[in-house]
Amino acid sequence: MKPAKPMMSLRRLRKVLKDQAGATTLEWALLLGVIAIPSYYIIQAALSALVAHYQMIITLNALPFP
Length: 66
Hints:
The chain is mainly α and 66 residues long. The protein is 74% helix and 0% strand. It has a domain at 27-66. It has helices spanning 10-18, 23-62.
């Protein structure tokens, strides 16, 4: 019985590691992830604070001052 052959030979692994075809795409995807995901949460927090501030101003405006 033959021993089990590894799924990826060392030569094939080296070839995959040297390949630069998708490096630029991967870099852009990582940059987008690093910038876009935190930006989404920052914008959501800022909008939430803005809405709360607006509601407070509307409430104060509605108070019956003499």
